[in-house]
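Fig. S4 source data, part A: sequence.
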Amino acid sequence: MERRLAAILAADMVGYSRLMGADEEGTIVRQRTHRAGLIDPQIAGHGGRIVKTMGDGLLVEFASVVDAVKCAVAVQSGMAECEAETLGDRRIQYRIGINLGDIVIDGDDILGDGVNIAARLEGLAEPGGICISAKVYEEVRAKLDLGFEDMGEQVFKNIDAPVRVYSIDLGIETPRQNPDLKAAQAVASISGKPSVAVLPFTNMSANPDDEYFSDGLTEDIITELARFRELAVIARNSTFQFKDRATDVASVGRELGARYVVEGSVRHAGERIRINAQLVEADGGAHVWADRWDRDIGDIFAVQDELTRTIAANLGVRVQHAALDRALQKHSADMDAYDCVLRARRYTALLDADEQAKARDLLEQAIELDPGYSQAHALLANVYLAEHRFDSNPRPDPIGRALLMARRAVELDPQNAYARCWLAVVHFFRHENENFEAEAQRALALNPNDAETVADIGHYYIWMGEFEKGMDLTRQAVALNPLHPGWYYFAFAQYHFNQRDYAQTVADVEKTSMSNFYWTPLIKAAALGQMGETERAAAELARMRELKPGISAREEIEKWNCAPDHAAHLMEGLRKAGLSE
């Protein structure tokens, strides 16, 4: 594998999608003109080699770091002159990043951290600006008559150590980006999580005094959405700078570094209020989700709380679904820790040993990529616990391994509701009910909008015999996620079984869509047994034994920490169904 030290220049056009959308042919012609008349000649004249072009950007290698910086300065100065008469939103500008580092040669391509850092530096540069690493700065500061601004150490995604960054003062007028927007863009670019910007909701009411409600709703949505630890939510002080500005989603996404943008409106008329909200993908403008809520105003603050929770929950679910779609399109070699977690989530929902093993491999890969990733540790606790709950032949001490992972997840991020939830579930299966309740309440306090967390905790409360508390939480989860997975119906089934509504229990179990899970025929057999339908009940018992040969229903009920009265009720139904144990 051939290596060499080189100066790497990464350049990218600002607002490429917006410019192409406004004038595709004109943008292409102007870009080609700038490349032919300015950019390519400057690169050649300074001894650079264009490694590759990416439509709106290019990667260039130089043997001399001084020549790389001279080239960048000449290009940016020339572009400012060429585009001086063009209106601001139609102006073609580039961001440039330069790094000095070791590169790996792969045919005509170059790879390695040296290249990756150059690309990250380009992302930090202002339109028309240049950012350089400390290595470049040390080489050129005494050799070139330029001004430099120390931007401090920056943490870049998938780069082990922080990188000190400098920007070059070109001495030309370039549109300056607001510091708040610049900070938001930097945070979003390095987090690796789907980044979301919630724009101020538009007040469509006749009364301008209603502005306080639309602004308050926006601020509350931002706050509640930030509870989802898997999202990077742009702060209020950044998004509110777009208030009352006519702008397109692509521009907002570019300026804030946001992958998704939330827009909405509020209309208050008489005693009714209508809220519209939509989630849009910034790159391309595709609509991911939209909904509308009509409410009687009543207690306006209660209405605001309800809408905030509902909108935030829907956004959290939809953004993560959209992120999963992106992750599934990636080659395994290109996945980062977040992609691994997204893919693993799909497999953890399937109660199959092979699928669980895939999830385990992905999560262990995620932790190797990012040892401080709390969510990956929490989900791995789920996977280890699945061996205890579902596997007929688990590896040694699965519940002990699950406890270690869950505790580590909470240590890494004590504010992570999902981590708290799975620590609670581990305590549940260890029959440590007080510890379960303590962690469950912490999880609900940290994020009452996460339907999965709310549903999980409600489900286990029902096992413990806390039927009303469990059902309240399950109903909340259904309201937060109307398109919920089938396993939510297990909570309804057990609730109705406790209410002696056995026909509804059977109907609930059939809605779970989990025919290959041995608890499905177990509960169904108990309900049918109580109804006296012994023939159907016997068929369900046979199915239970087929799914888990050698099963002891009593041991399973005990393992699942079932409340004594509920356990006795289930066993009574199973005996009536024909169970001989």
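Fig. S4 source data, part B ends here. The chain has 24 helices and 14 strands.
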